[in-house]
Each structure stands twice: as structure tokens, then as C-alpha cells.
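[User] Could I get a sequence and C-alpha cells?

[Assistant]
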Amino acid sequence: MNSSLALDALTTAQPIKDDITQHEISALKTRFNLADAHTHQAQSPSQQQIIQNLPALWYQAESQTQYQSEQAFIETFFTFHGQRHALKRRDEIYLVYAASIAMHITATYLRKRNMSVGLIEPCFDNLHDLLKHMEVPMTPLPESIFADPAMVYSQLSQHAEGLDAIFLVDPNNPTGTSLFADGPEPFVEVARYCRDHGKLLILDFCFASFLLASGRKRVDAYQILDEMGTDYIVMEDTGKTWPLQDTKCATLMSSTRINPDIYSLVTSVLLNVSPFVLNVVTQYVRDSAQDQFASVRDLLDRNRAIARECLHGDFLNYLEPKVETSVAWFEIRRDGVTADALQAYLLTHEIYVLPGKYFYWSQPERGQKYIRLALARKPEDFAAAVQTIARALEVFNG
């Protein structure tokens, strides 16, 4: 089992999958599922108290209005994230039951206006697929153009001149890069460029909680955008942060000028998110505000350290992110070994990881040197998984 030819043979035996989600569905059947970034860790002691209080939260949802449940969540979530400026237009913060719904609404808006988009690469392939299915023209924007704050404006002038919109993910999934990691200057330059050139700025902040988990304060992005006069659509999420078993809520907000159009799309999709779900999620946000994110941060830190200790070496290179999120991004150091082949090999050991090709949506071959591991797992299960990977790689090395 110590040749790339053997690995390639394993790869060809695997059913072809169109996207990451199809891999994640398959991974749910596997003993060690390190594919999807959904939260599968156990509850902390204080979160267990929330679970014990579920009947009361149910009856609370019955006894108050939908609007009260919505506003309690909005106030709690945006205050916790330091995005208080958005609360000045709290009635124009729209709630949907999954971030993919917010993304679909955004893609519909772009398609109706025949807008072209510059989409960051790499990024989670769900964004690309939604835009592709809506037949929105896309151009890749390499992460590297945002690395130097002094060059962001000129780099965008070079890469985005003919585009109508710029779509960024921050922190990015899977790499952990962020416009805010070392201060707000890169983000300010992006907002300024979009304003000056009349481009719509679309921001996926679904991993933004991990800025807080890493000990940083979030800059009030909504204030920067409004004061700059930049048109924007921003989505945020709860499903990748707290162990909610997909009982989640996402938010969608846009600049004042385009808000009426976005609102019409939102109301064509759904009426409301369950008030019971909103009550539950609000309690989890409050819990993290009280423990300063310890229940989320400590588990991810522990699993990240285990992954680095067990897997970083001659075969895999752990890539340090700007912002530590709930995934780990590894580079394959072994010549001739593709991510597809390594994934297939590990699957023979009942381990499911994601190959990097899906994140490089315009150049899948560039992603063949990377794999992604999800960290939001019970520590004992995660440790067993990465130790199994390490033993499997030892066998491969002979």
C-alpha cells in the first residue's frame, strides 16, 4: 500500500460525487466522520442546563409574539458579536433557518439583475454551486490579493474591474484567512474600492464567531460599510459554532438602497424561523457571552492540538490559519499523492476527510494537494480518528 498507483486505484473505485455536501452525506455513515464542519461535540455543563430547560423555552415561545422571539435573538446575537450598528435597522435584519437559504436569496438577487461576481478562491463549494445553478457568471478572486492592506485596492482594480459584485468569506473556509486578522485596514480598503467603483460587496460571515473565539474583538463591519456608503449583502450564522444539532438560525442584511428588493425575495421564501428554535439559540449565545466562549474555544483548541501533534510531519503539513476556526487545513507533502487518493485510502480505515479540490472551484487540480478535517467533535472521538489516520499513514510509509 506504499505507492501512489495503489492510491489512484482506490480513488477510481469510489463513486463520483458532485460536491462537498454529497461527501458529507456519505461521511455520516462512516465511523470517523471528519468531513462536515457542523457541530458534533457534546454539551458543556452550562449547555446541558439549557437542554434541561427546553420545555420552558417551548412554552415561552407559545406565550410571546414571533416578533419578540426574533428581536431577542437579534439583540443578543449582534450585541455578542460587537455589531451594534446593525441594530439601528433591527427590523431589516432578516432571519432564515439556514445560511444556504440566505445564500440562495443572494444568488437570486444577482441572477435577476444579470450581475457578474468575483468569488474568493478557495472557498466552500456550496457558494459556487448556488451561484452556478442560478447561472450567475463567476470569476475567481485569489486569496492572495487581500494579503497586503496597501495593495488591496490596486489588486481589486486589476482583478475585479469588469465585475458587478465581490463575494468574500471571512474568516474563510477552509484556510482561516481574514481581512480582520491584523486590523480592519484590508476590509476598509475592500469597502472603499466597492464604493468607488459601484460594486456590490457580498460577505459571508458564517465563521465570524471564531474571531471572538480566537480572543479578538470583531470590528463593527456594518458601521464601516454604512459610513463608507458601500452597497452590501451580509450573512451570518449560528450552525457552525454551537452544538445545536442543526437547530440553528442565520441572518441576512443588506444596505438601505437594495433592502426593499432583498426583503421581497426573503418573503417569497419563508414567513419566519421557529420561535422555539430562536429561543434555544438565543440561550446558547448568552451562554457563550457568560463564559467568554470557553466551551467552544477550549474544545476546538484541544482537538486542533491533537491534530497538529499526530499528523503534522513528513506526510502532512498543518497550515497555520490567520484565524483558527472549526476546521484544520493540511497540505499533502508527498509527491504523486492526490487528495482524492488519500481520501480513498483513509476511507478504507473508516475515516472520512474532505479533498481540497472542491474548495478550488475554478481550478480543482490546485486543491489536490490539500485535505480538510473538521474539529467540532467530542475530543475522545477526534483523538481516536486522528490516531487512526496517523497509523494509516505509517502503513503507507512502509
